[in-house]
Design brief:
With about 650 residues, the chain is α+β, with helices and mostly antiparallel strands. Among the domains are: about 140 residues, Galactose-binding domain-like (Jelly Rolls); about 200 residues, no CATH class. Helices cover about 40% and strands about 10% of the residues. It has 24 helices and 14 strands. Strands 2, 4, 7, 9, 10 and 11 form a 6-stranded antiparallel β-sheet that branches. Strands 3-8-5-6 form a 4-stranded antiparallel β-sheet, with no helix packed on it. Strands 1-12 form a two-stranded antiparallel ribbon. Helix 7 crosses helix 8. The N terminus is likely disordered.
């Protein structure tokens, strides 16, 4: 394959210079405005997989940067050299797989027969600089190919002429398959290769491709009367091999006979570009695609190679990598809105249906099929929407911190993560109330996690854990393990997680020189000694009671016998256990504002402060609704279409 290290050279310059770096949600409570951004490495992987149908799990992408806790934010997605290099490799793999899926397996049959004209010997016709196989197709050459199954196949025959200017137009090659389907192509005097593609239905088994000179000359005709020269100057046609592709994908729509420059040959490449670039392919782009296909075809051994090279260039375009703003409130860009909808729900590019709605002008309407909310519901109902749940669970709720390689082998890490991702997925699927994140004690767990929790579940893994002292995501084993310190539960880390994830109020970092907690004594005693330090007591007074309320669970999320906590918050509130902590989290609207701002930031692709006016608008729009209603409120907001209201 041809590598394209400079294709994205302009992309780095397109990274948003007008967007300042952001590490946390904005604190001025102003409405954010989405800016141009690049796809995050995770989004690039999903986009390439969806466009090509090729799984890229084994290919590495650089570590994603974050803004406001998420990797899909406009301030978190710079275009680095490492990203360009990894994208080059991934695009090559994806393009090869895409071309293979389109054309199917290929059988290449080398042509090993040379035929000289009447009255000439091969050694008289051939020249020292001629390729290995030189054919006078006037006599006919049969090549046997084998179709593995019944289906539609493409026969590729690359032909080149050895011909003088005076003999231009003299040679016309004919190709037949089983004597029924035929194609003809005239060969010029320039010696360039012309590929003839025949699309034919074949039954499983052996078939004969016949190569002929189509000029109507008899096999024994004296060529001198036509060539007016010696054998060494005779016109000739070169055919190195015949390729049989297939069965081909239904996306291949060429008629029986097509030359390599036919529009139908380019059609799959245009379809790929249309989806990757999220816009119709105009005449300029069509000309570039034709040039790419031709260049790749000439540089490689087959049509499939040329198609893959051109596909790789499409996938390396800045038009795939960069996400523009969605226009303005007065002049929204429907295709850009479609792109941001797909990124929010699928972490990928739009499909053909969503693009069609945008391009026909129906997306930003109330059309019952193509309208904004109809399409958003379709995206959220698609299996690819699990990527939204995974992203929120991993990046917002922090289960990505779990690393099986650093934990004891018996810890069911995958089942822990699945429980939390599943909770977020059900909240979106069922439009559950916001408070259910910590208020709902019902969950679904795998058998290995049920054993870990020492509980019995229904056949589908469903169970209500209220009687066990658990309280929603607060007591998921994934969260409790991710906020532990090695093999010891950490009240401080758990409290910091409650403040940051559920209230968007992360504690200040500890001052320099503060000693670590003594790991040899009881955690409560260690915390008491630690908070005796005046430099620490102010912060720990608001942290320790939250973390100690979760002392009924060990470092890996299992229930353990432990006396109720008696630690009090500065206002005197005592939180003896997880249930009381859940009630405290739900006692005001802070969790709702935090949750809505997190969903809003993910959906918009830009950090959102929980006190921003937009959050108030979204909460008002949602009313007694749930998670899915929040996504609808964000997408329906003028901000999603280009800027703050």
């Amino acid at each position: 394959m041809i590598r394209w290290p400079l294709v994205l050279a302009g992309a780095a310059a397109c990274h948003v210079a007008d967007t300042p770096p952001v590490d946390t949600p904005t604190s001025d409570a102003a409405d954010p405005a989405p800016h141009v951004r690049a796809l995050a490495p995770r989004e690039l992987r999903y986009a390439l997989e969806d466009l090509s149908g090729v799984a890229l799990g084994a290919l590495a992408f650089p570590e994603a940067t974050r803004a406001g806790g998420f990797d899909n934010q406009d301030a978190a997605t710079p275009v680095s050299d490492a990203l360009v290099d990894d994208l080059d490799r991934a695009a090559e793999t994806a393009a090869l797989g895409w071309a293979d899926a389109l054309l199917g397996p290929v059988e290449v049959v080398q042509v090993d027969e040379r035929v000289a004209p009447h009255g000439c010997a091969i050694e008289d016709v051939a020249r020292p600089d001629d390729p290995a196989w030189l054919l006078w197709l006037r006599r006919g050459v049969d090549v046997a190919v084998h179709a593995p199954t019944d289906g539609t196949y493409v026969v590729e025959v690359p032909l080149a002429a050895r011909i003088s200017q005076q003999q231009a137009g003299f040679l016309t090659a004919s190709v037949t398959v089983d004597g029924d389907v035929s194609g003809r192509v005239g060969l010029d005097a320039l010696g360039t290769t012309v590929s003839l593609l025949l699309t034919v239905p074949l039954t499983a088994g052996r078939h004969i491709v016949t190569l002929l000179n189509a000029n109507g000359l008899s096999p024994d005709a004296d060529m001198d009367q036509f060539l007016r020269g010696p054998c060494q100057e005779a016109a000739a046609i070169r055919v190195d091999a015949v390729s049989l592709y297939g069965p081909v994908s239904p996306a291949w729509s060429c008629p029986t006979e097509a030359r390599g420059d036919a529009p139908c040959v380019r059609a799959p490449l245009e379809a790929l570009a249309h989806r990757a670039w999220r816009r119709p392919v105009d005449d300029d782009a069509r000309e570039r695609l034709t040039s790419l296909l031709s260049a790749g075809w000439l540089a490689g051994p087959s049509f499939a190679t040329g198609l893959a090279v051109a596909g790789q260039a499409v996938l390396l375009s800045p038009e795939l990598l960069l996400v523009p703003p969605s226009g303005t409130d007065d002049a929204p860009d429907a295709s850009a809105v479609a792109t941001r909808m797909a990124l929010a729900t699928w972490s990928s590019v739009p499909d053909d249906a969503l693009l069609a709605c945008a391009e026909r002008g129906a997306l930003l309407t109330d059309d019952p099929t193509c309208g904004l909310h109809a399409q958003l519901d379709r995206l959220l109902a698609d299996p690819r929407a699990t990527r939204m749940a995974e992203g929120l669970a991993h990046q917002w709720l922090g289960v990505e911190r779990l690393d099986a390689s650093t934990l004891p082998g018996e810890v069911p890490v995958a089942a822990m993560i699945e429980e939390t991702v599943g909770a977020v997925q059900r909240a979106l699927d069922d439009d559950r109330p916001l408070r259910d994140l910590v208020a709902d004690t019902a969950t679904v767990v795998r058998p290995e996690l049920a054993d870990w929790y020492a509980i019995r579940t229904a056949a589908d893994g469903g169970v209500d854990l209220g009687a066990t002292g658990r309280a929603g995501v607060l007591t998921h084993a994934s969260v409790l393990t991710a906020t532990s310190s090695g093999s010891r539960a950490s009240a401080v880390r758990r409290a910091a997680w409650v403040r940051e994830a559920l209230r968007c109020d992360p504690p200040e970092p500890p001052p320099p020189g503060v000693p670590a907690l003594d790991a040899t004594v009881d955690p409560r005693e260690a915390l008491a000694a630690h908070t005796a330090n005046p430099a620490c007591s102010g912060c720990h007074a608001t942290l320790d009671p939250l973390g100690l309320a979760l002392d009924g669970f060990d470092a890996y999320g299992r229930s353990v016998a432990h006396p109720p906590s008696t630690a009090a918050l500065p206002d005197g509130t005592v939180l003896p256990d997880a249930a009381s902590l859940a009630a405290w989290v739900l006692s005001d609207d802070r969790m709702a504002r935090c949750l809505v701002s997190r969903i809003g930031a993910w959906t918009l692709g830009t950090p959102v402060d929980p006190d921003a006016p937009a959050v108030t608008r979204w909460l008002t729009a949602v009313g007694d609704g749930g998670w899915r209603d929040v996504v609808h409120a964000v997408v329906d907001d003028p901000m999603f279409r280009g800027g703050p209201r």
